[in-house]
Write a structure and sequence with these properties.
Elements (H helix, E strand, L loop, with lengths): L7 E3 L2 E3 L3 E3 L14 H10 L6 E8 L16 H17 L4 E6 L27 E2 L13 E2 L2 H21 L3 E6 L4 H6 L14 H4 L1 H13 L6 E6 L10 H13 L5 E4 L17 H10 L5 E4 L5 H9 L5 E4 L1 H5 L3 H9 L30
Parallel strand pairs: 3-4, 3-12, 4-5, 5-8, 6-7, 8-9, 9-10, 10-11, 11-12
Antiparallel strand pairs: 1-2
Helix pairs in contact: 1-2, 3-6, 7-8
């Protein structure tokens, strides 16, 4: 029996299978507002048969956007635009939908990736960025403003306000973005955090602010809404954040009843050296799972083959498998995985007639005639 297609829980939310669609920035918003692009993009992913869809990083304040084209959830207009997209998607799909809330920190105010991704210039509409310390992301980049006590409180309040908006929109879960060199990760890493106060120095101090944000968000929404965190398990830089420090964070999150931890890596330094290969981040997820108690782990990163995903879950290396770029390339990847592994997947009735003759049980009890 396949393990990839067995139900499992995130907090009080039960997912039909272990396949998660990871959040993927589309850089297609207008003033933080979702557009028709998001309606089309999320609509097709909601037909994929995955257990959970996590929509892209949504900034908790305007200066927390990576680019001017990022989605936000910091204004009434943002919320209304997102509500329009969600209403259309939910009309035709029962798939649970989560939101990733984030703040880009010192990596904000940048061009979209296909325009180079470099920091915006003042003549291009740049804004002041913030971080734990006045250290730029790369030589020549703007120096961020080091957050003081008032700034920390403002950012934490922004996360809470966005979480309340997410609850009002009816999201099934919330993921806090603590990965890829963005603000919460910047606090964790000694590369970007050289503070000398209670938020810098020891690993316990460096994880203090991310944990405060988690606690504040957890307290702001009902217990029925799972709240988890995505992390970079390592910076891939000597002397940076690493797996053992990630384990310290995981234990602290687990002790707080965190619903899940989503294990990615990298992003805080251009000096990173990432050994890309299939499933390269899975051993880190496995190490974190070993110390995380009952807190589910999500593995992500070059997991593209259904048997590969099945083996990871069956071996207990992670509880869930997340796919990102592979889902963009093949939006019905879970259909193929179910067919190859001998499982069933939920598909809209409009698509039932696409079921291959060699996989008659793929769509369950689908029955449809033709004229």
């Amino acid at each position: 029996m396949t393990q990839l297609f067995t139900p499992h829980t995130l907090g009080q939310l039960t997912l039909a299978n272990r396949i998660v669609i990871a959040p993927m920035c589309q850089y297609s918003a207008e003033d933080g507002n979702m557009t028709d692009w998001h309606l089309m993009h999320l609509g097709q992913l909601a037909f994929s048969g995955a257990g959970l869809l996590i929509i892209e990083a949504s900034a908790v304040e305007a200066i927390g956007r990576i680019t001017p084209a990022d989605v936000g959830l910091y204004s009434d207009d943002n919320q209304a635009a997102m509500a329009r997209v969600l209403k259309a998607v939910r009309t035709h799909s029962r798939m649970p939908i989560a939101i990733q809330l984030g703040h880009a920190g010192r990596k904000a105010s940048s061009h979209v990736p296909w325009a180079g991704g470099q920091a915006l210039k003042a003549t291009e509409g740049a804004w002041e960025t913030v971080g734990p310390s006045a250290l730029p992301q790369a030589p020549g980049d703007p120096v961020p403003l080091a957050l003081d006590a008032a700034g920390l409180a403002r950012v934490k309040d922004a996360f809470v306000a966005s979480a309340k908006r997410a609850h009002a929109l009816g999201f099934d879960a919330i993921e806090l973005h603590g990965a890829h060199g963005y603000l919460l990760h910047e606090f964790m890493s000694p590369i970007s955090n050289q503070r000398t106060d209670d938020y810098g120095g020891s690993v316990e101090n460096r994880i203090r602010f991310p944990l405060e944000v988690y606690d504040a968000v957890r307290a702001a929404v009902p217990e029925s809404i799972p709240v988890g965190m995505r992390i970079s398990a390592t910076d891939w830089v000597d002397g940076g954040w690493d797996v053992e420090q990630s384990c310290v964070l995981a234990k602290a999150l687990s002790a707080r009843g965190c619903a899940f931890i989503h294990v990615s890596s990298g992003g805080v330094s251009p000096q990173q050296k990432i050994p890309l290969e299939p499933g390269y981040q899975v051993p880190m997820a496995e190490r974190i799972k070993a110390v995380a108690g009952d807190m589910p782990t999500i593995a992500v990163g070059l997991i593209t083959d259904p048997q590969q995903a099945e083996d990871i879950v069956a071996a207990g290396q992670a509880d869930f498998i997340a796919l990102a770029r592979a889902m963009l390339f093949e939006p019905h990847w879970p259909w193929r995985a179910a067919m190859e592994l001998g499982a069933q997947v939920e598909v809209p009735p409009q698509y039932w007639r696409s079921q291959p003759r060699t996989a008659k049980a793929l769509f369950g009890e689908a029955r449809i005639g033709s004229r």
